[in-house]
Specification:
By secondary structure, this protein is mainly α. It has 13 helices and no strands. Helices cover about 80% and strands about 0% of the residues. The model has no long low-confidence stretch (mean pLDDT about 85).
């Protein structure tokens, strides 16, 4: 948990300030900033299937430490980048170990959690990145406001990442984890095909969050007249995530995975519907809490569900599958949401999230729940 917190703290510390850094230091325009920063996400997405394969085929702790070392060291590259091209190369390369590290760290966490408490443990584990997401952006903005020193921020991110690496290096790891050395190369080594139904659901929910996170600020300003509430919105969303994880561990402890998933889906649906149906400050901030609560229930439930459909030596692939599906959904949400907003307006784009979310909920009840109960290797988890 500490290593995961350090990983996401280092990531989110810089995220809100990098556009400003590129603009001030390299005079980059808005479209260039978008291109430079998108390279990180693209590389992370491309490396995740390979990282799932690596985690399942090689000693997991070694893979984890290599990925964490590369992730930490590339922060020092920001300190050395003296041109926009150099920064672009380093930022794009940095996405690779980040994508692999999120898969490796969560897979090792699943391995070291006692099997009897795995559902509950994954719920607690996810708190660490929720806390980082809630704290790190504000810390980064606060430090920059009083120092106006990006080099200091890069050093802090580098040092925090090294502490995460040290924490993971101290893990006592079992020697009896099976790996897939002799299994033939197939799609199932990069994407858990028997968990495709869970992937479809995560794509639909990722789509909704992709539209929300990328077009929230401009919708708030142009439609609702809220000019400085975006930070507060995501803070409330993070609080909802944390509260729901704490509240949901009881159900996870009892193996009530589908119960938690259904609860999360319905709360999230209420949040997205309230956001667009009540275009005022009350609906705006209440939707943040509901979406946070819903996603906080959704994530550990779906992650446990896909782990329960996988063998022990397929956990890396299962983790990468759920993360890839979410990333695909986010990407589709940004793309299709932007097209919809351009031609039909932002209100239509957010109504589209309600439709997609509804479709995801219906798909869960008609396909996902039934297929999960059939493929579930842990029959106590239902």
């Amino acid at each position: 948990m500490f290593a995961n917190f350090a990983l996401f703290f280092a990531f989110y510390l810089l995220t809100p300030l990098l556009p400003l850094y590129l603009s001030e230091n390299f005079c980059a325009t808005k479209d260039v900033i978008g291109i430079v920063l998108s390279g990180y996400t693209i590389t992370a997405l491309l490396l995740r299937p390979v990282s799932g394969f690596a985690v399942d085929c090689f000693p997991r702790k070694k893979v984890l430490l290599i990925c964490f070392a590369l992730f930490a060291l590339l922060f020092s590259g920001y300190l050395l980048a003296t041109s926009l091209l150099a920064f672009t190369i380093i930022r794009t390369l940095h996405g690779g170990p980040f994508g692999a590290l999120t898969v490796a760290n969560s897979t090792v966490a699943i391995d070291v959690i006692p099997s009897a408490r795995r559902n509950e443990g994954i719920g607690y584990y996810g708190l660490s990145n929720n806390l980082a997401m809630a704290i790190a952006p504000s810390v980064g903005i606060y430090i920059y406001r009083y120092t106006e020193n990006f080099q200091l921020l890069f050093w802090i991110a580098f040092i925090v990442a090294l502490t995460g690496l040290a924490a993971d290096a101290s893990i006592k790891y079992r020697k009896d984890i099976q790996i897939q050395r002799n299994k033939k190369i197939s799609l199932d080594r990069f994407f858990l095909t028997k968990g495709w139904f869970l992937g479809v659901n995560m794509i639909s929910f990722g789509f909704c969050f992709g539209v929300l996170s990328n077009y929230l600020a401009i919708y708030s300003k142009e439609i609702l007249g809220i000019t400085s509430g975006t930070g507060t919105y995501f803070l409330i969303c993070s609080i909802g995530l944390i509260l729901s994880r704490l509240q949901g561990v009881s159900a996870l402890r009892k193996g009530m995975l589908t119960h938690n998933a259904i609860e999360g889906m319905l709360i999230s649906f209420a949040g997205y519907f309230l956001f667009i149906a009540c275009p005022n400050e009350l609906g705006y901030y209440a939707s943040a809490l509901l979406i946070g609560l819903g996603n906080g229930h959704l994530w550990p439930a779906f992650q446990n569900m896909i782990i329960s459909t996988a063998r022990n030596n397929e956990r890396g692939t299962a983790n990468s599958t759920i993360l890839i599906s979410w990333d695909i959904g986010i990407g589709l949400g940004i793309l299709i949401g932007g097209i919809c907003a351009e031609h039909l307006g932002y209100s239509a784009a957010f109504w589209l999230t309600v439709i997609v979310n509804t479709t995801g909920v219906i798909f869960f009840f008609t396909h996902t729940k039934r297929l999960f109960l059939r493929n579930n290797r842990n029959k106590d988890a239902c």
